[in-house]
């Protein structure tokens, strides 16, 4: 239990720290940020529930006023701005990424994590983020998707980075990946 809480807090801190990476804000108020990499990693490393808990902990701290979102944003106002759908989508995206890695059986932990990051950290997060943006800017959902499509190449790179980092972790410390541990042992028995 203590180990789980420590890992959840660690990944919440990682997501927050990735918000310190310099950002570029586009004309409609949505910044290019590294925080989604942290969300992808939380789900890919911790799994569905703990990954979602890490992202939810970050949002709780943001709601309390801590400036932990990219650009030093915090407080309840971030939940009604143009990035509200993305911020509120962080726990859902981490959960979806974790659910993917827990249930999809691929030979490579890195490939599993990378594809899970595409599923949760891009497909699911963009669905929620574009929906929130559409509501805030009062434009059709299709127009909001066109506005955020500019982020897809960078997020695909983040998914690749997630896969590479998880592959390295699986090779160095497979016990750190609960979802992979049993697969690694089964693979060792097959050899």
Word description of this protein:
- This protein has 191 residues and is an all-alpha fold.
- The protein has one domain (2-185): Arp2/3 complex 21 kDa subunit ARPC3.
- It has helices at 2-18, 35-46, 48-63, 84-103, 109-137, 141-148, 152-172, 178-190, and strands spanning 24-25, 31-32.
- The chain has a two-stranded antiparallel ribbon with strand order 1-2.
- α1 (2-18) runs antiparallel to α2 and α4 (84-103) runs antiparallel to α5.
- The model has no long low-confidence stretch (mean pLDDT 91).
- One of its GO terms (cellular component) is plasma membrane.
- Pfam families: BioY.
- The chain crosses the membrane at residues 39-64, 76-101, 113-137.
- This is Biotin transporter.
- It is found in: Cell membrane.
Can you tell me the residue ranges where pLDDT is under 50 for at least 5 consecutive residues?
A: none
From the N-terminal CA to the C-terminal CA, the straight-line distance is 33 Å
* Mean of residue pLDDT values: 91
Rg (CA only): 16 Å
CATH topology description = Arp2/3 complex 21 kDa subunit ARPC3
Instruction: Describe the strand arrangement of the main beta sheet, using strand numbers.
Output: 1-2
CATH architecture: Orthogonal Bundle
* CATH classification, class level: Mainly Alpha
* Major sheet: 2 strands, antiparallel
Total helical segments: 8
Would you list the SSEs in sequence order as H and E? Answer: HEEHHHHHHH
């Amino acid at each position: 239990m203590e180990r789980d809480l420590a890992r959840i807090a660690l990944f919440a801190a990682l997501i927050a720290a990735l918000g310190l990476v310099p950002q570029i804000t586009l004309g409609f108020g949505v910044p290019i940020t590294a925080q989604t990499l942290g969300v992808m990693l939380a789900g890919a490393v911790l799994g569905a529930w703990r990954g979602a808990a890490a992202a939810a902990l970050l949002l709780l701290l943001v709601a309390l006023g801590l400036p932990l979102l990219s650009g030093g944003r915090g407080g309840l106002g971030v939940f009604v701005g143009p990035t509200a759908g993305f911020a509120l989508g962080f726990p859902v995206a981490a959960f979806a990424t974790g659910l993917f890695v827990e249930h999809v059986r691929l030979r490579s932990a890195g490939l599993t994590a990378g594809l899970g990051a595409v599923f949760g950290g891009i497909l699911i997060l963009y669905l929620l983020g574009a929906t929130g943006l559409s509501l805030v800017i009062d434009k059709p959902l299709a127009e909001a998707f066109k506005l955020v499509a500019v982020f897809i190449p960078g997020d695909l790179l983040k998914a690749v980075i997630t896969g590479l980092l998880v592959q390295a972790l699986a090779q160095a410390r497979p016990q750190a990946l609960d979802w992979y541990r049993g697969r690694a042992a089964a693979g060792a028995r097959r050899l």
